[in-house]
Automatic annotation (TrEMBL), chain A:
The keyword Oxidoreductase applies. It comes from the Bacteria. This is FAD-dependent oxidoreductase. It holds the Pfam family DAO. Gene3D superfamilies: D-Amino Acid Oxidase, subunit A, domain 2, FAD/NAD(P)-binding domain. InterPro entries: FAD-dep_OxRdtase, FAD/NAD-bd_sf. The keyword Transmembrane helix does not apply. Residues 4-307 form the FAD dependent oxidoreductase domain. It comes from Salipiger mangrovisoli. The lineage of its organism: Bacteria, Pseudomonadati, Pseudomonadota, Alphaproteobacteria, Rhodobacterales. Keywords: Oxidoreductase.
UniProtKB/TrEMBL annotation, chain B:
This is Thiazole synthase. It catalyses: [ThiS sulfur-carrier protein]-C-terminal-Gly-aminoethanethioate + 2-iminoacetate + 1-deoxy-D-xylulose 5-phosphate = [ThiS sulfur-carrier protein]-C-terminal Gly-Gly + 2-[(2R,5Z)-2-carboxy-4-methylthiazol-5(2H)-ylidene]ethyl phosphate + 2 H2O + H(+). Its main location: cytoplasm. Pathway: Cofactor biosynthesis; thiamine diphosphate biosynthesis. The active site is at K95. Catalyzes the rearrangement of 1-deoxy-D-xylulose 5-phosphate (DXP) to produce the thiazole phosphate moiety of thiamine. Sulfur is provided by the thiocarboxylate moiety of the carrier protein ThiS. In vitro, sulfur can be provided by H(2)S. It comes from Salipiger mangrovisoli. CDD domains: ThiG. InterPro entries: Aldolase_TIM, Thiazole_synthase_ThiG, ThiG. Keywords: Cytoplasm, Schiff base, Thiamine biosynthesis, Transferase. Homotetramer. Forms heterodimers with either ThiH or ThiS.
Length: 322, 256
């Protein structure tokens, strides 16, 4: 029996992978089923390894490409690509983005066919193979899938000395992982039925690269700041201005949107912003998904299952000791 | 090399700590380049120790820390941020940045002089981010600054030294004041040019942090700074309009 501690995207993905390989699994999370207490609740849900490569290391590009198929087997994945645009004055940023990424084609006239309601943009990059999902639905689907397999969810704290424990507590695992830090992210959920965007759109800007992800029924997620701060209490006025300005720049009709939710949380990250698997004293720690929760959780889960079930050390394993 | 408020720096490269792909890459950029000063922003990371983990990483670089007031638009904000910086990093050094214009991030030199005076009286050692204006430079020195940091070009623009004429004049006007080119550097050749002009140090961030390979770019910047400084000390030749043969030609057979 494997005991997964934590039911955020990391814990549920690990449990799902283990269960799909025939292992017996139970899950401990005193906070209960997935909800606003975990940072994966607030994620964008973009499966965008090619775009992320602009500012991430190579494993994100390679391992992230496994994510789409993994999630398609477990939840609804929208495969409509990602559109990257920049205002005319920031076109150098678009050129740089193009130089540093791959898997896109440049679009100009086609932009209006792809997203007719983008307002005032003449050039963009279309990453056709990227996808997105709804994080809350994905968590709920993983949860339901595990329950259907008979996996027990315990809201009691995990007992001491649990055998075959897999610790997926995110930032709460700092007690055992001293090189883990929190990176603040802020996001908004808005409703604006007047504007129709059908795929994630990234707006490049020298200081504030932001994205908008359609959630259906006129609801959009606007994200996300990245601040080296561990204050998860609330959003700053500056961040809210930046997020809303980005939406407004994509289409001024977003000015009439209702603000439904404000999300603030901390992403667990190691110093190189790449995830890690560690086995220390018999307990496996899987952590550090940073801003790539949904993108890298499948690779993390496979790595944990390889280690736990077959003693195979994938590239994410950086420590294995008693 | 001139001393900065009595402190001798190991070399003339001051490197910012924002916008790197990860703290690990930031650390490598410092280690590989050997930059001796790290500038750190406090404004966004927030009060009450919320940025403490990141700041600890910067402290662990083991280099001199120059906190800044990036993002401040008023004297009051800048003074508050400077006090916070002094508490967090235990240093009297403060890079004073007072933004006057949102698009160009041009310093508001009037508020800059005012804030410099307040902070100097409070015991701070102020590194003012200013323009190449000589009179503003004089006023800053009169306010108690012992270092001037004129911009090369707007922050993050990577345009290099927009006004070499004025920067040369500034060097000539303040021969004994440590001068740092702060902002606008995009390429190592820009940094070399600053050193060739006789500047004492170069402060940059975006050009390294946002390069495709920040670690390699940090090294390149250090190499260029070293080249520029050596060239300056080597008394370069003056440019001339006509060719001057490096070998005397009179009396050579081919002239016959």
């Amino acid at each position: 029996m494997y005991s997964v501690i934590g039911s955020g995207v990391a814990g549920l993905a690990v449990a799902s992978e283990l269960a799909s390989r025939g292992a017996e699994v139970q899950i401990f999370d005193p906070a209960g089923p997935p909800g606003p207490h975990g940072c994966s609740w607030w994620a964008g849900g973009m499966l965008a390894p090619w775009c992320e490569y602009e500012n991430a290391e190579e494993p994100v590009l390679r391992l992230g490409q496994q994510a789409i198929a993994w999630w398609q087997a477990r939840t609804t994945v929208e495969r409509r690509g990602t559109l990257v645009v920049a205002a005319r004055r920031d076109l150098p940023d678009l050129r740089r983005f193009a130089r540093r990424t791959e898997g896109f084609r440049e679009v100009d006239a086609e932009l209006a066919d792809l997203e007719p309601e983008l307002h005032g943009f003449s050039k963009g990059l279309f990453f056709e193979n990227e996808a997105h999902l709804s994080p809350r639905k994905a968590l709920a689907d993983l949860h339901a899938g595990l329950v259907a397999r008979g996996v027990a969810f315990h809201t009691a704290p995990a007992p001491e000395g649990l055998e075959n424990a897999i610790d997926c507590r995110g930032l709460s695992a700092r007690d055992a992982l001293p090189d883990l830090r929190g990176v603040k992210g802020e996001m908004l959920v808005i409703r604006c039925p007047d504007v129709t965007l059908t795929r994630p759109v990234r707006l490049l800007h020298p200081r504030i690269p932001l994205y908008i992800v359609p959630r259906g029924n006129g609801v959009y997620m606007l994200g996300a700041t990245m601040i080296e701060s561990e204050d998860r209490r609330r959003i700053t006025a500056r961040s809210m201005l930046e997020l809303l300005s980005a939406a407004y720049a994509l289409n001024p009709a977003f000015g009439e949107a209702e603000v439904l939710e404000i999300g603030v949380d901390l992403r667990p990250a190691f110093p190189d912003n790449l995830p890690r698997i560690r086995r220390i004293g018999g307990r496996i720690y899987a952590n550090g998904l940073y801003r790539h929760g949904y993108l890298l959780a499948p690779a993390l889960a496979k790595g944990v299952a390889d280690l736990a079930l077959n003693n195979i050390h994938s590239e994410m394993v950086d420590e294995d000791r008693d | 090399m001139k001393r900065f408020y009595g402190t001798e720096l190991p070399n003339p490269l001051m490197l910012g700590t924002a916008q790197y792909p990860s703290p690990a890459i930031l650390e490598q950029a410092f280690r590989t380049s050997g930059a001796g000063v790290a500038t750190v922003s406090l404004r966004r990371e927030g009060a009450e120790g919320a940025g403490a983990t990141f700041w600890k990483m910067i402290e662990d670089l083991g280099v001199r820390i120059l906190p800044n007031t990036a993002g401040c638009h008023t004297v009051k904000e800048a003074v508050t941020t400077a006090h916070m910086a002094r508490e967090v990093f235990g240093t009297r050094w403060i890079k004073l940045e007072l933004i006057g214009h949102t698009d160009s991030l041009q310093p508001d030199v009037f508020q800059l002089v005012e804030a410099a005076k307040i902070l100097t009286e409070d015991g701070f050692q102020v590194f003012p981010y200013t323009t190449e204006d000589l009179i503003v430079g004089e006023r800053l020195l009169a306010a108690g600054c012992e270092v001037l940091m004129p911009w090369g070009a707007p922050i993050g623009s990577g345009r290099g030294l927009n006004n070499p004429y004025a920067l040369r004049a500034m060097r000539a006007e303040f021969p004994d004041v440590p001068l740092v080119i702060d902002a606008g550097i995009g390429l190592p050749s820009h940094a070399a040019q600053a050193m060739e002009l006789g500047y004492d140090a170069v402060l940059l961030n975006t050009a390294v942090a946002r390069a495709g390979d920040p670690v390699a770019m940090a090294r390149a910047m250090m190499g260029a700074i070293e080249a520029g400084r050596l060239a300056r000390d080597a008394d370069p030749i003056d440019a001339r309009d006509m060719a001057e043969a490096s070998t005397p030609v009179i009396g050579k057979a081919f002239l016959a």
